[in-house]
Amino acid sequence: MGGYVGRLAPSPTGALHLGNLRTFMVAWLRARAAGGRLVMRMEDLDHPRDKPGAVAQTLEELRWLGFDWDEEHVQSARVDVYRSALERLRAQTLAYPCVCSRRDVEAAQSAPHAGEQLHYPGTCRGRFATWAEAAAVRPPCWRFRVPDGACVAFEDVFAGPFEQDVSRALGDFPLARDENGAGYTLAVVVDDAAMGVTEVVRGDDLLPATPAQILLQRALGLPAPAYCHLPLAVGPDGRRLAKRHGDTRIAAFRAAGWSSRRLIGFVAASCGLGDGSPCGLRDLLPGFSLAYMPHSPWVVPSWGMYACG
Q1: DSSP character for 55?
Q2: Which partner for 38 in 42, 69, 108, 233 could form a disulfide, CB atoms 3.0-4.6 Å apart?
Q3: What is the distance between the alpha carbons of residues 235 and 288, in angstroms, rounded to a whole number?
């Protein structure tokens, strides 16, 4: 694992919660156990959903928990880089403007869909010559033109083999809703390569989106990092954490009097590391291994169960 470069990539669309902490903990441990570098990248391109003060709060809470990193980046300061990547895709006729709404795409489904993935049938392929022409109809997005039969297979570090025919599963997927190409999918691909990231550790809800990112890497001639997708933290009902499960924000634990060491020990136990006793991140390094990580989701007890603990 020489030359390892990992990343922490929070988004200021909400408060840091237990699920975030668990994933970031493993990402930090993977980098530090390998003697590698760790990049902090604030993914703040989703401006309508960004919460005021969330960037500062997230960084402060991560430092309180004991996290450190070797370099820091903010995506909103890198839009020129994304514009350049988009221009390369356009030059290859791999990006085109599309005015279809999510409702339009849902209506075009030939079968019921599961989760967030929808198949786009290419309605706007060849429809508009320019972004301005599309914008006269409706605010557009850029879509990536997926070749027919574009099948991507890779070996996930934790989840194992994964294969997807992107043309059948997604079709032409969105790149950005900004004319200059500043959108999540394009930005993360460009940034991971530019920052030398060798492994991406994140939740397995993003596993189905990974083949599309690999297609973008290939189109742009960029190296592909290894991927390590971890099971999510879920509530007692088996659904991903939400307000209905109680307050699982890091800020709520601090307000309830939890120390950072108590919180780290609690979450570490869900990864098969320790018995839940208070500890710091560095205390986990000597015995850290993904071999102890459960492959099933972490069922978090309700707020009332551990607020009184």
Answers
A1: H
A2: 69
A3: 26
What's the pLDDT at 308?
Answer: 41
The CA distance from 213 to 145, in Å, is 13
pLDDT > 70: percent of the chain: 92
What letter does residue 147 receive in the DSSP assignment? P
CA–CA separation, 307 and 309 (whole Å): 6
Task: Give the chain's mean pLDDT.
Answer: 91
Band of residue 305 on the pLDDT scale cut at 50, 70, 90: very low
State the pTM of this model.
0.92
- 3-state DSSP call for residue 230? strand
Output the CA angle 30-6-36, nearest 5 degrees.
Answer: 70
State whether the Cα torsion 235-238-239-240 is positive or negative. positive
- Per-residue pLDDT tens digits for 115-156: 567 899 999 999 999 999 999 999 999 999 999 999 999 999
Residue type, 1: M
Phi/psi for 174 (5° steps) reads -70, 140
d(CA 75, CA 9): 10
CA angle in degrees (0–180, nearest 5) for 57-197-283: 60
As a 3-state breakdown, the chain gives helix, strand, coil percent values, each rounded to 5, of 40, 20, 40
Tens digits of per-residue pLDDT, 240-271?
877 766 788 999 999 999 999 999 999 999 99
Domains of the chain by range and CATH? 5-77+231-307 (3.40.50.620), 79-230 (3.40.50.620)
The distance from CA 28 to its chain's CA centroid, rounded to whole angstroms, is 15
Residue whose structure tokens are 């099933």: 296
The Cβ of residue 205 has, within 10 Å, a number of other Cβ atoms equal to 15
Q: In sequence order, which ranges of the chain are alpha helices (DSSP H)?
A: 18-33, 54-65, 79-91, 102-107, 131-135, 166-169, 184-194, 210-220, 250-255, 260-270, 303-307
